[in-house]
Specification:
Elements (H helix, E strand, L loop, with lengths): L1 H12 L3 H11 L5 E3 H8 L3 H13 L4 E4 L7 E4 L2 H13 L12 H13 L1
Antiparallel strand pairs: 1-3, 2-3
Helix pairs in contact: 2-5, 3-4
Length: 119
């Protein structure tokens, strides 16, 4: 299921499933901003993996990274307005046809509800 979701998401929006996970987590955060260490929890990754991935996303213009306003030792990751629209478009474009078996799974229903709430 993850392979098919990633393939469709890449084809429809140019985002990978890990990109989508990061953007979705940021979309529900206060001010669409989170410290890297906090971002790791909702997506279930190690801090170092999040750090490397968001830096690559930053070079692609998907997020911005910078020092926290409250503690300069902490790096905040921010979802920009442009990327919020990209996320909403990806959620819309990647809605699978109901004829696909994985499209009717509880997991896909949960993802759809989460994306609607984030938008």
């Amino acid at each position: 299921m993850a392979y098919e979701m990633n393939r469709q998401l890449l084809a429809d929006s140019g985002l990978s499933l890990p990109d989508y996970d990061v953007l979705t987590a940021l979309s529900v955060a206060d001010d669409r901003r989170m410290p890297i260490t906090v971002l790791a929890t909702p997506i279930g990754w190690e801090r170092s993996r999040v750090s490397h991935h968001v830096r690559r996303m930053s070079t692609r213009g998907l997020v911005t990274c910078g020092p926290s306003a409250t503690d300069k030792r902490i790096t905040d990751v921010t979802l920009t307005d442009d990327r919020r629209r990209t996320l909403a478009q990806a959620a819309h474009c990647s809605s699978p046809p109901s004829s696909l078996p994985w499209a009717r799974s509880p997991c896909s229903e949960l993802l759809t509800k989460f994306v609607r709430h984030a938008g």
